[in-house]
Amino acid sequence: MKEHNKTKKTYDTSCYENRELSWLLFDKRVLSESRDKQNPLMERLKFLSISASNLDEFFMVRVASLMDMVHAGYEKKDIAGMTAIQQLEAVNQATHEFSELQYSTYNRSLLPLMNQHGLIVVEQHEELTEEDGAFVDRYFEEHVYPVLTPMAVDSSRPFPLIRNKTLNIGALVQKKGGNEELEFATVQVPGVLPRIVVIPTKDETTKVILLEEVIERNMDKLFLNYTIVCSHYFRIMRNADLSIEEDEADDLLIEIEKQLKQRQWGQAIRLEVEAGMDKRLLHLIQDELDIDEEWIYRIPGPLDLTFLMKMYGLPGFDDLKEHQYCKPQPVPAYSADRDIFTMIREGDVLMHHPYETFDPVIEFVKQAAKDPDVLAIKQTLYRVSGNSPIIAALAQAAENGKQVSVLVELKARFDEENNIVWARKLERAGCHVIYGLVGLKTHSKITLVVRREEDGIRRYVHLGTGNYNDSTAKLYTDLGLFTCAESIGEDATAVFNMLSGYSEPRSWNKLAVAPLWLKDRFLGLIEREKEHALAGRSAHIIAKMNSLCDKDIIDALYDASSCGVKIDLIVRGICCLRVGIPKVSENITVRSIVGNFLEHSRIFYFENDGKPAYYLASADWMPRNLERRVEIMFPVEKPELQSKVMHILQCSLKDTIKAHLLMPDGTYEKVDRRGKEPLNSQLLFCEEAIAAAKKIQEPENDRVFIPETGKLSD
Fold it and tell me: Cβ(320)–Cβ(110) under 8 Å?
């Protein structure tokens, strides 16, 4: 394929959406699921919790980054033509509106429904009956009081350091029996204790009160010589975006450990306070934290709605949850009593998680660790679970004398601490551990097993769109490919040689690797579709990813669209491309699916005049993925596997239940269902996985599952 055309059209800034505002639009789509009355109550609580968690991350990373730009005097505009200051102003307005919508949803819709279904939330401790109050006070004395550390501020005790994301109770206190001026006191609501306290009841209802209410009720026991003038809840968000000078860091691991400690004490960027907080107390906290008025959020309800995920886990409310989704089903080509290397030799295997189990990936590493014919295992790790069976298998492999090389990415945001622990464990077991590359994050998902066989050395490879994390593999939609194709095996070896020895291969057989080759590869594939369209040949692009904000890619898509290429994009989160621009993006559709599982797979289809090309990748169409990370794109070449990939794309494009369509004005709307068959793509994939598993268990049954009807054949 020839290199893509370097002469590019230029587009006005109005053709692009601001990245940060697009992120907030995704959070709004998540929040809309908590407002959707078609969803069971507990699922609505879960989505509201997720929206709160997403907003926290948005502040700690994106808002913090914008503030850093402003403080540094950075004036360059983004692709939408906005300066950092303008972005901050727009984000501030949008996040205040978003917070109001969150609490309107909680107070007006979800809270009454919880009470209606027998889940009674005591909103204020003053509402407790005498009997319930006695229980709460005993609970405080026995379980809470020993854990608390009340802190007062006076001439000998400075204002305490308030940790990031912690919930606190601030108070103004006055010494008893005197006319001394008011002093500030605070106590942190301990995260080591359950935030939801269940109060015993004599009927079928479940009554709960939040831990902070239990503590506030008993504040006088924490400051015995003082009168509590007022007390209110507050919570701060700090800048958690790590800034690491890698070139100057002699030991990256030690430098990251140092920065992780700083994350708890970074600049305060958001202050959440209980609505109606005493003005004297608010001004004192605001001054001490040095936070501007516009970043204060007065909250009409419980601070930090992520506690609703714990509410979701309360027993007794299963009938208020979604039960149609399946647990991960067996992969049709794999069975636990089979040798996995034999399975891969029989043909490439494509797995669709979480509908199909992640177990074969774990078993791949486990069998390799024990197999006497396996000589080496090489793997990249970005995010792994808290008790990872893959880490255990790699450690065992090294102890069994195999050559084990693992790249552990220490810069995986918010997983740095976890990855440091795993890196040290692997080193102690005898693995060769690489701590990522200077200036780059290694985000690719690849495992290479080198095995001695009768006909020589054979390389087995697993490539994926998602992390080697057995926990998130039950929650995220991803695709994984097993192959022992020689061409991909050679490329896999080249990838690991590049990671460990910085040796760039002269050429690649099948893989495309960022940051040096992948972006040009994508641009070339888009250009090829454009040339087909200009020549009157069939041209179509379908691309599924998490985020789209790379200007070069967007411009190439606009160029292709204006030449007649039909482009269907399935973008879960950020999308800086705009649809419906006359003579620019009239041939482009964008939809976002927000469902029970987090859409995470990256799939790319290029029609290529009837000779279609299918690719899977670890990368989104973002500058960081294409220019500042090690990423891998790999082809799916077997026709039956290509059909499976196309089925996933087609079902996603036909989703009428969980899909949101991007409108020309930049907003998102649920798909208009009129005249369309109702289709929840995630639910359909569950049903298909169950049907396939039944077919394995009942081989004599010749009935097959027909995706179009969602039923078994007669």
Answer: no
Residues with a catalytic annotation lie at 443
Specify the pairing of strand 668-670 against strand 659-662: antiparallel
605 class by beta-carbon count within 10 Å (0-12 exposed, 13-18 middle, 19+ buried): buried
Total tally of structural domains belonging to the chain = 4
- For residue 358, the domain's CATH number is 3.30.870.10
**Do 503 and 528 reside in the same domain of the chain?**
no
Do 445 and 403 belong to one domain?
A: yes
Has residue 61 got a pLDDT over 70? yes
DSSP 8-state symbol, 383? S
CA dihedral sign, ordered 507, 512, 518, 520 = positive
Residue 48 reports pLDDT greater than 90 = yes
Q: Which domain holds residue 226?
A: 124-241+269-300
DSSP strand pairing (349-353 vs 196-199): unpaired
Residue with token string 């040339």: 531
Of the chain, the percentage scoring pLDDT greater than 70 comes to 91
Residue type, 419: N
Distance CA 625, CA 702 (A): 45
Most confident of 50-54, 59-63, 418-422: 50-54
Stated pTM of the model: 0.90
CATH for 46: 1.20.58.310
For residues 583 and 437, membership in a common domain is answered with no
Element (H, E) at 688: helix 681-697
User: What's the rounded mean pLDDT across residues 27-56?
Assistant: 96
- Alpha helix segments (H runs only) across 173-315: 211-217, 252-263, 279-289, 308-312
Q: Do 458 and 533 fall within a single domain? A: no
Cα–Cα distance measured from residue 222 to residue 145, given in angstroms and rounded to the nearest whole number:
8
Q: List the structure tokens of 560.
A: 């292709």
Helix (H) or strand (E) holding 534: helix 518-534
C-alpha distances in angstroms, 514 versus 283, 461, 635? Answer: 49, 19, 15
* Statement: residue 2 has pLDDT above 60: no
The tokens describing 211, both together, are 């831990």
- Please indicate, yes or no, whether residues 190 and 285 belong to a single structural domain of this protein: yes
